[in-house]
Structures are given as structure tokens and as C-alpha cells.
Amino acid sequence: MSEISTALVLGAVVVYLIAMVSFAVDISGLGRRAPQRPVRKAANIGMALSWLGVGLHAAGLVLRGLAAGRVPWANMYEFSLTFALVAVLGFLLIQRSRDIRYLGVFVTFLAVAVLYVAFWHLFVEADGVQPILDSYWLIIHVSVAAASTGVFSIAAGASILQLVQHRQSRHVPAAQQPVRVGAAGGAGDAAVESDAVAEPAPPSSFVGRVMAQLPGAESLERFAYRLNAVAFVGWTLTVVAGAIWAEAAWGRPWGWDPKETWSLVIWLIYAAYLHVRATVGWSINRFAWFALIGFVALLANFYIVNVFIPGNHSYSGL
Amino acid sequence: MARYVPEGLKQEGADAPAASEGPRGPALGVRGWLRWGWRQLTSMRVALMLLLLLAVVALPGSFFPQRPQNPEAVAQYLQTNPDLGPFLDRIGMFDVYGSPWFSAVYLLLFISLIGCIVPRTFAHAQAMRTGPSRVPRNFSRFPVRARLRTSAPLSAAVTAAESVLGRGYKRQTTDRDGVVEISAERGYGRETGNLVFHLALVGLLVVTAWGQLVQYRGQAVVVEGDSAVNSAVDYDSFTSGAWFDSGSQEPFRIRLEEFTSRFTDAARPDEFIADVTLTRGDGEVSTARIEPNSPLSVGSARVYLTGNGYAPVITVTDASGEVAFSGPVLFLPQDTAYTSTGVILVPDANRGEPQLGFSGQLYPTALRAEDGTVLGSTFPLPQDPVLILNLWTGDLGLDDGAPQNLFTLDIAGLEQAMDVTADGSEFPLELELAPGDTVELPDGQGAVTFSELRRFAALDVRWDPSVPWMGVFAALAFLGLAASLFMPRRRIWLRIEEGASGTVVHAAALARGDDPGLQRELDRVTGAFGKRRTTAEAKNDE
Ligand code: HEM
Residue A10 belongs to what domain range? Predict the structure, then answer.
């Protein structure tokens, strides 16, 4: 069963890789063709492949859990699988209500990279867990952590695009900003984007033409914010559930274990992000930078703190 | 952010006062400066900076070993870094979370938080009492708005509007010269949630500090058949807060009946179970099980299983044939196969002339080389336990009162007993014993017996009355946060007046923060005026 799980996950990596190429072809097509293209064939292929990949990925994860006889997120390999699955699945589900195919390259790339590292550097055989991990808090604390990480990841993609979009739109006079194909959610969008009705001259650079097809920086920012808000609540739950578990397992709710410390730091950075967003007079670029710093800390917590800094969490094994 | 204006527009709800009322030249007196400082401290910008600063100052604690958590690692670090270590120690790097600079940052943050949240709480309470504010004169600055006409008479339109707004909205209806204005607002819970969240953080800090002051924690290592008593003097180590009162220490005794562990074939631990008998202060006796993740609660104290190992029962007779030592000896596991080390101190042997000391290695499942010498342990359970002892004679140095490490022998003043091979070279004497064995010591110095192998469990007893309260405040913070982020706070304004051919309704909606559903909500409200003969003014009518 363990081998089948491994094969399925490998299959998912391959499928995601092809999906990523399809999304990339779609994006570069945006740069070449006229603004309003009715059909985005490559993007549709990318979507279909992503669904296929998610299917393989999920099946692999479920089999892994069955092989180990427990929930499949007890070590770094499995945690990677879980949060990458949440990221791709989240992307696909959001796509059902609004067009975010422009994030496809990012999300599939992330999935490929995470699974690659998981597979070649973090792999461990499916097995039970140590008594100290054998608790229903493993189910709650770690699954919420993985889900939040997945959602933060999608948001980070949107934040990066937002920063690119901002750079790009500085080259285009405001009056020329074209209609976006991405869905513009939110009440404020109407006002923001209503001044872009007149048929614009297409931007001259390639990136400019691509970005001109995507939602505006404000819209991307709002999208990232919504995801970050959800993930932040999840992260809060992660920290709280972790403290409850630590109280039962280690005899104290909080002990400044390196992982605890980093989780708090991540939480503080995202809390600062929410405050930045509530502070008047700051450009939305700053919001994106704060969110990205939070995301970098999140990755560091997982890939650096787990591996290189000894602490109570280390015994979860790679 | 001392002033809170319940208006969705960020320009109005912000910390403008702090920014605009900075110091204005020398006229500012002490009170002026104080007030200015307070404004700064309670501004959003400073709160934000303090949040980030707290994140930054918390980090060194994850890079350097911390004394409260791991004093041995700190000592080790100081030894390997004799140049940098003392400097780092001076600036508090080995006790970051107790350092003045760390405390300063979080205290400032919480002062800022209180200064920020308390006035907001009053303002919010007032806003809840007074209800929604007046309808703005001009709707055109609101992106979400509509204008529509209905054939219904004015009064019917007003009734329809009020009923569609329903109970969810607090509203105020004014009628001025035939122009009816309705101001409605919902989602006060968003702000309530935000306030609850922030105040719960303060609560969390306060109960944590209180817990630190009154708590106690004791550690005891108990061998099967032995007991630990919950009293400060009985523990191997005991720490308590500054306000600790020994009256809060529940009297009880725990006797370890049996310790069981299970391992997989690959020697991965699978189960640790301490079966204990608990005797309470009132004499009530019960049995219980302590496992990892399931501590034993005795009153409000909790008993945790934090470690385990082997304790061979050893008897030493000296040269005169008298029993100089008898009892279980703790051996500390060194690896996953429970290869363990321990020492046996026999100060009473030969009336101290000389004293005997043994340093030993215990192999629960011995791995042997071809010639029978023991190489190591292959499994943590005692399938073929072997104890190897080295003998030392001389002065154990116990009389000078210096603290002794329980698991390594201080060899100063001791001489190691040697053995000689056939070719004449010397090597340390090794005594090999399996359970039940007795081995003679060389030169008629006596004998040592390894009668049985018992287990020991390390138990942590902890009492911290703040823990349930932490749970309460954490839960409040969590719920408050969710409300604060996801509850939409919306205001809807309607101006309904008699027009040329029926009744004209102007509507506008505004949300606090980010609210993707606002347009839909306005559509729902305007839907009350009959079929859609609306001009969706929201789009491009300017
Ligand atoms: C331990 C320190 C603090 C933490 C962890 C924290 C956390 C948060 C979080 C997570 C939010 C998001 C909820 C929301 O957007 O409604 C928030 C909002 C807010 N915080 Fe804090 N906060 C802290 C201190 C402060 C301080 C010192 C102030 C005052 C200067 C403050 C003022 C606010 C305000 C006004 C909002 C609402 C923003 C909005 O209107 O959206 N907070 N805080």
C-alpha cells in the first residue's frame, strides 16, 4: 500500500508539471494575442490536469494514511503532501467561483517544488507514531497547520502577482488601463475599475501585455487579504491547539520550544499585516510585502527550524 | 487610534490624531509631552512596530539554548564558546524570555493595546446605544449605490424597506417634509469581536503572569515498588513561583506498581504505561494509569510521565562479608536501544577504607561479538540483559558536600581495578552480570549481586491554576478574532421620496473593511421595491 501511495504521489508530480507548462503557455498566450480572447485552451488543459493531479495526490495521501494506520500528517514528508494538496485543492475550488487561472503556474509550481523536496529529501517509510504523538490533537493541530499553510501559499502567489502588477501598471497611464479578464470580486472593484472602459492601446512589453490581462493590483490585494484572513484564523487555531496539546504531552502549554517560538513569530507577522492593512495612508504594496515576509517565516519554520534547530518537535522525524 | 469613528471609510476610522497632533515647538509642557507620548504609544503605527519588534526579539531564543528550558545546553555552549558566550550571557541571550528587553517590548505592546482598546470599547458601547448615524447628504461618493423608481406609494415603500431590513439591522427612520430617510446598520459584532479579541489577549497575559507566580512543579524518579510524595522536600527537584503557598500543594502519594513499554520490531516506542496506586490526603486509595499525552489529575495538580529507564537491583558485600549496599540503581538510557549508564556508590564498604565505586553499562538485549564480548544493545526491552561494571576504589569524595552527578562517576581520588591478559598487558577490569548473578570482586574485596531488573519512571507533578483560564481567554480570543474578520459590518442608507411618476428610492451601502457581499446585500434590499426597475447606479452613471 505504501508503494502504491508513493507511485500515486510521483504520478501527481508529473501531472502537476505538465499542468504547470500548460498554464505557462496560457499566460504567455495572454501576452501575444489580443486582450479579449474567448477561449483559453491551454488554461483549460491546465485545469483538467490539475484536477487529475489532485485526484492522484489525494489518493496517494489516503493510502499513505492507511499504510501507516493513522492520519497521514505525522512527519515532514506527510505534512508536505498535505499542505500542497490543500494549496492545489483550494486553488481549484476557488476557481469554481472566480477566474484565478492566472495563479495556476504558481500553484502547480509550488506543488511540484514541495512534493519534490518531500520526496527526495524528507521521505520516511510509513509507520506508526511515537506515544507522545499518539493523540487526537495530532489530528487537529497538524491538519489545521497544514491547511493554513496551504491557504497562506495561495495568498502568497496573489501577493507576488500584485507586486508585479504594481510595477507594470506604473508603466501604463491610468486612462489606458484595460479591462481585466480575471473576475473582480468585491464591492469596491466597481469603482476602481469602472474608469477602464475605453479600448486601450495594448502595452508594449510582453510582461506588460500579460499583466494587463490580469486583475488589477487592488483586486489581487483584496483576494490575497481574504485568503490570509482565513489562514490567519487557522494559524491562530494551530497555535492554540498546539498549546493545549503541549499541556497534555509536555506538561506546560507554552515552553518557548523553537517551533513554538517560530509559530508565534509567524502569527505576530501576520497580525502586523492585518494592522498594516488597517492603517491609513499606506500603499497596498506594503500589505503584500508584510504578507510575503510572513510567508517566508512560515517556510523557514517548516524547512529550517524543523531540520536544523533541535527542540521538542524534532522527534516527529523527518 | 484612541478615537474610533464607526465609519467604513478608512480615512475616517484611523489614527489621524496621532499623526496630526505632533509636538508643536517649545510651547509643549511636560503634560503635553506625556499626552503626545501616549498618543504615539497607542497609535496603530506604534502597535504595528511593537508587534514586529516582539517577533524580532523572540527569535534569538530559538537559536541559543535557553537556561530555563535546558541549562545543560547553556553550560555546554559557554564551554565551547569561551569568548562569545559570556558576552551573550550578559545581554540575556540564554534567557531571552526573561530578559528585560523582551519584557519591555511585550509590556509596551500590551500598554499600547490597553490604551487603544479601552477607549474603543467605550466608543463602541456608545455607538451600540445610539444606533446608526444620520443619512449622508450625498450618496455619490459611495461605490455601492442604486436609484430606482417604484409605483408603490411612499408609505408602502417605507414599510417594505423596513421589513426587508428586518431585525438584523438597527435602524433610524426620519421623515422630513415628505422625504423619508432610513439609516440602518448591522454587524456590530465585528467591532465587538475585535474588542473581545484584544481584551482576551490582555486576559491571557494576566492569567499567565499570575500562574507563573503561584505555580509549583516537582520532579521525581520512581522505581517500581517505590513511591513519590507530593511535598517539596520529597522531590528530586522542585521549583515554584514567588507567591507559592505550600497550602496549595495537595497531599498525595503515588506508588509505581508497574511500568510497561512496548516497541515495534524496529525498536520504535509504541506504548509507555505507568500503573500507579494513588493515595490521597484523605486516605482514599485508587489505581490509575499514566501515559504520554494522558497525565493523571489529582485535584487540580497533574502528574505527567516524562521519562523511563532501567534500575538494576544491586547488592554489594564488602571484604568483611557485610552488605554494604543494596537496592535499585537508576541507569540512564543513552540511545534508542536503551543502552544505559549508571553508577553504584558504596561509601560504607570496609568502613570507608577504601570505599568502592562502580561505573556501569546496562545492555537490555546484548549484542555479542564472536568471542562473547558485549558490543551493544539491539533492542530496548530486556530480552538478554547484561550489566558490565568497572570497579574503582579509593575516596568517593562524598563528604565534601559537592553535588554529585547521579549517572557519572567522579574519578578524582579513585583508582580503577585492572585485569591482566595472558600476555601481561593491563586493561580495566570488567565484571559481567546477568540478572541473578553474583560475581566476586578481585583480591577478596567482596562480591556484587545483580538480583533483578526493575523499571523506573520519571514523573513530573505540576500545579498551575492559570491553565484553565488560559483556555478560556484563548477561546474568547479565537471567537472574537473570527467575528472580527468575518462578520460583515454594513450600513445601508435609503432616501425615499415622492417623484414625478411614483416613488423614488436612493440607496447606498457601505461596509467596514473588506466585504465582497455588499453589492448583493444592497440588491436584496432594493429588491423589496418590486420588480427590478432599477438603474444600477453603482456602475457608470457619472
Ligand atoms: C498583542 C498585540 C496585538 C495583537 C496580537 C493584535 C492582533 C490583531 C489582529 C489579528 C487583528 C485583526 C482583526 C481585524 O482586522 O479586525 C487586529 C485588529 C486591530 N487591532 Fe490589534 N493586535 C494587537 C495590538 C493592538 C494594539 C496595541 C492596537 C492599538 C493601537 C490594536 C488595534 C487594532 C485595531 C484598531 C484593529 C482593527 C483593524 C480593523 O479595523 O480592521 N491592536 N489586531
Answer: 1-126
The confidence band for A208, taking pLDDT boundaries of 50, 70 and 90, is confident
Report residue A197 as a C-alpha cell.
Answer: 472602459
pTM: 0.87
B144-150 and B374-377: which strand pairing?
unpaired
| CB nearest B516 (choices: A127, A185, A262) | A185
Question: Which residues in chain A touch residue B209, judged by CB atoms under 8 angstroms apart?
Answer: none
> Is the ipTM beyond the 0.95 threshold?
no
Any chain A CB within 8 A of the CB of B536? Answer: no
The best mutation among B111, B118, B484 to test binding of ligand 1, ranked by most ligand atoms within 8 Å of the C-beta, falls on B484
Coil, strand or helix at A222: helix
CB-based contact, B462 to chain A, within 8 Å: yes
pLDDT at position B12 over 70? no
On whether both A70 and A139 belong to a single domain, the answer is no
Report pLDDT digits (tens) over B254-289.
999 999 999 988 888 889 999 999 999 888 999 999
Judge: A187–B518 Cβ closer than 8 Å, yes or no.
yes
Nearest CA in chain B to A185: B516
Amino acid at B87: F
| Predicted pLDDT of residue A188 | 37
- Residue A153: inside a domain: yes
Alpha-carbon distance B290 to B273, whole Å?
Answer: 6
Which one, of B47, B182, B171, lies nearest residue B120 by Cα?
B47
For residues A48 and A27, what is the distance between their CA atoms, to the nearest angstrom? 16
Instruction: Look at the block and give the residue holding cell 517565516.
Output: A297
Together in a domain, A161 and A291? yes
Q: Is A303 contained in some domain?
A: yes
B470: its cell numbers: 488560559
B205 in contact with A, Cβ within 8 Å: no
In chain A, whose CA is at the least distance from the CA of B14? A280
Whether A185 and chain B come into contact, CB under 8 Å, resolves to yes
In a domain, A184, yes or no: no
Give B-chain residues touching A226 at CB under 8 angstroms. 514, 516
Which uninterrupted H or E stretch holds A231?
helix A217-249
Instruction: Count structural domains, chain A.
Output: 2
Protein residue whose Cα sits closest to atom 31 of ligand 1: B113
A6 and A98 in a single domain? The answer is yes
- The per-residue pLDDT for range A62-106, each reduced to its tens digit, is 999 999 888 899 889 999 999 999 999 999 999 999 889 999 999
Q: What is the CATH number of the domain that holds A119?
A: 1.20.120
Same domain, A20 and A48: yes
Asked if A159 and A247 sit in the same domain, the reply is yes
DSSP state of B384: B
**Do A135 and A243 sit in the same domain of this protein?**
yes
Please tell me the predicted confidence (pLDDT) of residue A193. Answer: 37
Q: Of A99, A126, A153, which closes a domain?
A: A126
**Residue B192, ligand 1, Cβ within 6 A:** no
Longest dimension (CA), chain B: 125
Residue of chain A whose alpha carbon sits nearest to that of B141: A191
- Cα(B192) to ligand 1 centroid in Å equals 12
Query: Is residue A190 in some structural domain?
Result: no
Q: Would you state the pLDDT for residue A183?
A: 38
Do B390 and B359 meet the contact criterion of CB atoms below 8 Å apart? yes
In this structure, are strands B269-280 and B426-428 parallel, antiparallel, or unpaired? Answer: unpaired
The whole-angstrom separation of Cα B324 and Cα B410 is 20
Tell me the C-alpha distance between A272 and A292, whole Å: 12
| Ligand 1 contact via B200 beta carbon (within 6 Å) | no
Nearest CA-CA distance, residue A18 and chain B, Å: 34
One domain, residues A29 and A94: yes
Which one, of A272, A264, A259, lies nearest residue A316 by Cα? Answer: A259
Give dist(CA A41, CA B172) in Å, integer.
53
- Which of A74, A108, A126 is at the close of a domain? A126
Q: Is B47 in the pocket of ligand 1 (CB under 6 A)?
A: yes
